[in-house]
Structure formats: structure tokens, C-alpha cells
Amino acid sequence: MKVIRRIFGNLDTKDNKDFIEKIFNTSFEWGYFTKDVDEKSQEYKQVREVITKNGWHDSVIGTEFSKQEVYNAEILYFVGARAFSYPEPQSPSFLESTYFDSCKECGIYGEQKADFVIKKQPILGSGGLGTLHWVYDELFSTYEVYKNYFEGLNMDFRPVKLMNKKVSAENIIQLIIPLHNTSLEMARFESSSCEVCGRIKCSPSIHGFFPLPKGDFFHITKTNEFFGSGHSASHRILVTNAMMQQMIQHKMAKYHQFVPCRAE
After folding, report:
1. 36 and 85 part of one domain
2. 175-184, 199-208, 225-234, 235-244 — which is least confidently predicted?
3. Global confidence as pTM
4. What is the tens place of the pLDDT at every residue in 173-210?
5. Which structural domain, as residue segments, surrounds residue 54?
6. 172: part of which helix (H) or strand (E)?
7. Which of 88, 111, 140, 185 has the highest CB neighbour count under 10 A?
8. Which of 88, 93, 70 is nearest to 1 (CA)?
């Protein structure tokens, strides 16, 4: 696992410019710069000593996992399929029309009450799996992919409606992903409480391994917890190792779209 950090700052003196060029063995332009670096690298160990003194900024931007870490994980967080159907509907009205008990302040919602509405018939590509630009915890597939794979996992589906036509889209359905029956261990992660509805959501910035769920066996599930910031909130989709490998084999996803889960 690599934790990737981003260094941002201003090269406004010759000493600073010479210093950064020597560390990374490359030339930099005068003025503001950014550089992404492995947290465990010698370059980062050298540059972090002068970050505060020079008024530069240092932040974690993500985590990279090896193929071995991904393929050896028992459970994985599926970051998401290729998004389609942009632009999104007028927000937050889609929450109110699609879910019960939705909150436009934090974006948290309850049970789904209506079918999704998209602007036009999508093309999902060879893998036959996709998601929406404005919804991060729902998956959509072609009917063939559903019949050939997801139906065998006892998954249900809902139709998807076309905007202004009041008819279902052809050959695309929404997969119904159940909520998991237990909560994650989230005590060490940042969270916030909505001032309007009082519900809690976790920070979307979880670097490193995702928390390992407990509870009953599943093929695919959603976390009980919501994640997000501002007016946005969504569950996280979790899959088993076997399902991940099937999704990769059938070109529904690639290995870098999965984050391994691990107990702390």
C-alpha cells in the first residue's frame, strides 16, 4: 500500500528552487508547484523537513494498492463503475422524488420509493455495468448482464425511466443492493451530524484500508453508514473477493476500482 501525499507551495527563492530540484532530480518552474509523492519515499522524508518553514502545504490525496493486496482481500469496497447520463437532474429535487425521508441539507435519505429517471438511453459498454454521475451508491446494468450474472445471486432489480417519456429505458435496470445487517467500526474516522435532520455521516476521505464489515455473509451489500460532505451523502458498496474477480473477468470493472477491507 502506498499513501500518496501532495506537496504544494511557492518557489520564490533560488534556495527553495534548487532544494526541490535536487530532491526530485527534475526541473521546476518559478512560482507555484505541486508534486505528488509516496509517503514512505526518501524524497518525502527530505522535503517534509522544510514544508512548514517554507509555508508549503502537505496533504494526503489517496492510497494506491498493489494487485496482490486487492486480490488477497476477503471483502472490498467497490469505488464505482463508469458513470453515464450527465448532466444530473435539478438538485435536490431528485432526492425528494426518489427516496423517502431525504434531507436536502446533508443529502442523507431513506428507502427508495420511485424509479430513477435519466435523460436518454445510455450505452453501458462491453461490461454492461454503470452508475450515475450524481449517485455514488447505485449500480445499473443491461438486462442481459442481470440475467447472466446478478439474477443468480438472488438480486432484484427496478426499471429505469426516461425523462419526459414516462416509459422505461430499454435494456437497462437498477440493481437492488441490500443494506448490510451490521454497522462498521467507525470510531477512529471523522464524522458530522446534520443540523437539520440530526443524522450522522462519515468523512468521505478514508485513506488506507477500508473498515472490514462483520455480520452475515453477502455477495454485495451497502454499508449502513453514509459518507460525504456538504449536501452530498451516499453509502459504500462492498463486495466479496469472489464477486470482485467475476466482475473483473466479465469486464464490469478493473482491479484499481476496488479498495481492500481490513480490520483494525
Report:
1. no
2. 199-208
3. 0.83
4. 999 999 999 999 888 889 999 999 999 999 988 888 99
5. 2-64
6. strand 168-175
7. 140
8. 70
137 and 80 share one domain: yes
- 110 Cβ contact list (under 8 Å, min separation 6): 99, 100, 101, 102
Dihedral angle at the C-alpha atoms of 143, 147, 149, 150, nearest 10 degrees?
80
- Helix H or strand E segment including 241: helix 241-249
Confidence (pLDDT) at 124: 85
Mean pLDDT of 37-51: 92
Let me know how long the chain is.
264
The residue-averaged pLDDT of 12-17 equals 93
CA dihedral for 133, 174, 238, 152, sign (positive or negative): negative
Which residues neighbour 196 within 8 Å (Cβ) at sequence distance 6 or greater?
A: 103, 105, 106
Which helix (H) or strand (E) element contains residue 19?
A: helix 14-24
Look up residue 221 and give its three cell numbers.
Answer: 451489500
Q: What percent of the chain has pLDDT over 90?
A: 69
40 and 170: one domain? no
Distance (Å, whole) CA 96 – CA 93:
5
In this structure, the number of other CB atoms found within 10 A of the CB of residue 130 comes to 22
Identity of the amino acid at 234: S
Cis geometry, peptide bond prior to residue 87 (ω within 30 degrees of 0): yes
C-alpha cell at 191: 464524522
Instruction: Give the CA angle between residues 229, 235, 237 to the nearest 5°.
Output: 130
Residues 168, 39 within the same domain = no
